[in-house]
Amino acid sequence: MVKQSVSPMGTIFSTQRFGRPQLLAGLLLLVFVGECAWLVAHEYPGAMLSNEGEFARIEEGLAQWHGHGIAGTPSVRTAPIELPSADGDRYDPHHSPLWYLIAPAPVYVFHVSPDSRLWLWLTRAPYILFGTLLGASLWYVSRRLYGNAGGYIALGLYCFSPAVIRSSALWAAPPDVAGAWGTFGAVFTAIAVSHTLYAPREVVLWNWRRIVLLGVSLTLATGSQFGLAVIIPALLAFMLYLAPDRKAAVAVILASACFIALLLLFASYFFHPGLFIRGLRHARLLDASWPLIKMPGAYLLLLREVAESGPVLLLLAPAALGVYVGWRRARYFGNTAPLLMAGLFLLLRLLSPHASGSVFVLTAVVFLFVFIAGIAADLLETEASEIVTAIVVGLVCANCFWDVAALSRIGR
Q1: How far apart, in whole angstroms, are the C-alpha atoms of residue 93 and residue 286?
Q2: Backbone angle region of 170, left / alpha / beta, with phi > 0 → left and psi within -120 to 50 → alpha
Q3: pLDDT digits (tens, 9 = 90+) for 32-48
Q4: For residue 167, how many C-alpha atoms fall within 13 Å in the half-sphere facing its CB?
Q5: Which of 131, 137, 171, 405 has its CA 20 to 30 A from that of 201?
Q6: Radius of gyration of the CA atoms of the chain, in A
Q7: What is the spatial distance between Cα 338 and Cα 183, in angstroms, rounded to a whole number?
Q8: pLDDT tens per residue across span 159-187
Q9: What percent of the chain has pLDDT above 70?
Q10: How far apart are CA 165 and CA 174, in angstroms?
C-alpha cells in the first residue's frame, strides 16, 4: 500500500482540519465581528473624548509608547483614573501598564489624531480581535470536550451575548475581554498540559510550546487585572488532580509559566525594575469586601449582570446546575472544571466593591457557556434528545433574536 503524501497547505484545508464545523463556527464569529462593528459605527461623535476615564487610559498608554514614562505609575499621569494608594503614590492597584498599552498601540503605529473617526476604530480594534479569539477558543475547547453540538451551543451563546459584544466593542464597558481571554486560555492550557504528563517523553522539553502559551495567557490575564492572579492556585489544583503522580513535573511547568509571565509583565513596564517592583508591591490581588456576602443587594446586582450576558442564562444556568447535581453521569471533570471556575469568579464579583462591569462577571459567564454546552451535549445523548434539541435550539435562537433586536434599536 502506498502512503499518500499531504502537503502542509493540504493538511490545513483537509476535512480533518477545515470542514463544515469550522466553516459554521467561522460564520458565527463573522456575525460576532459584525455586531461589534455595528456598535462602534453607531458610537456618537466625541464619545471617546467625553469619557474621561477611557480617554485618560489611552493617553497614558500612548505617552508610554512615545517614551514619556510608564502608564499607571507616577512617571506619567494624565488624569486620576485610580485613587491614590495609602502612601500617596499614584500606582494603579488593579492594572499593569499592559492594560494601558493595548488600545493605543494601533494609534501609535498609524499616527492618527484623537479627533479622527479612524482613531475610534483603531482603539476598539484590539478588543474586537480579543473577543473574536476568545470566541474561537471557546468553540475549540467546547468542541473537543463535548463534540460539535457542544461547540455550537457554547459559541451560539457567546456570539449573541450582549455583555460580551459590548465588552469587545467597548460600548459603555471596560476593556476586560483581554483578561477574560487570558484567563480562559490559562485554565484550559494547564488542563491540556496535565493530560500529557504521563507520556513517555521528557515532559518539560516536550511541552515547551504549551508552557509558553500558558505563560502568555497568564500575562494577558494578570496584566489586564491583577486580581486575576487568583487562577494560579486554581491551575495548580487542576494540574495536581489530573496528574497526582507527577507533582514535580506540575510544579516545574507551572513555575516556568509563571516565570515567563513575570518576564512579559516586566516587559510591559519597558524593563524599568524600580517601577516594576513598586507596581507589584501596590497591586491588590484580592480586593474583596466580605460584608457584601450578607447583603441581598449584592446578589441582585450579580444576577442583573449575569442576565446582561443573555437573558436565557437565567433559565439555562439553573437548569444545567440542576442536571449536574441530580445526574451522576454529568458529574465528570469536563463539566466540573468550568463550573468551578464560573463559581469562583461569580463569588469574586459578589465580594468585589467595584462598580458594575467587573471582569469577574465576564469571565464567569464564558465558563458558564462551556458548562451549559457540556450538560446540553450530555442530554443530547439520551433518549430525550429530540425534546432537549427543541428546547436548547429554541432558547439559543430566542437569545439570538433578542440580541439582534436590541442592536437594531441602537441603529434607530
Answers
A1: 11
A2: left
A3: 999 999 999 988 655 55
A4: 32
A5: 137
A6: 22
A7: 12
A8: 999 999 999 999 888 899 999 999 999 99
A9: 87
A10: 12
CB 397 within 8 A of CB 342: no
Structure-derived torsion over alpha carbons of residues 352, 174, 68, 97, reported in degrees to the nearest 10: 50
Q: Cell 516587559 maps to which residue?
A: 267
* pLDDT of the residue at 408: 87
Residue whose C-alpha cell is 465580594: 351
* Identity at 399, one-letter amino acid code: N
Other C-beta atoms within 10 Å of 350: how many?
19
Please say if the pLDDT value at position 87 is more than 70.
no
- Distance of alpha carbon 161 from alpha carbon 399, whole angstroms: 8
Please tell me the least confidently modeled range out of 111-115, 219-223, 376-380: 111-115
| Phi, psi values for residue 33, rounded to 5° | -60, -40
DSSP string, 110-122: HT--TTSHHHHHH
The residue count of the chain comes to 412
Cell 462551556: give the residue: 370
Classify 84 as helix, strand or coil.
coil
Evaluate the CA torsion angle 268, 271, 274, 280 in order and state its sign: positive
Describe the chain by its helix, strand, coil percentages, rounded to 5.
70, 0, 30
Among 150, 162, 250, 263, which residue's Cα sits nearest to residue 210?
250
Q: Which of 139, 65, 158 is nearest to 103 (CA)?
A: 65
Q: What are phi and psi of 160, to 5 degrees?
A: -120, 30
Domain boundaries, the chain: 45-411
CA distance 182 to 176: 10
Helices within 160-284 (DSSP H only):
162-169, 177-194, 203-206, 208-224, 231-242, 247-268, 273-281
More confident residue, 55 or 100: 100
Query: Which cell numbers in the block locate residue 143?
Result: 468542541
Please report the pLDDT score of residue 114 as a whole number. Answer: 81
* Separation of CA 192 from chain center: 18
Return contacts of 336-339, CB within 8 angstroms, 24+ apart: 337/187, 337/191, 337/238, 338/367, 338/368, 338/370, 338/371, 338/374, 339/367, 339/371
Residue with cell 468551578: 340
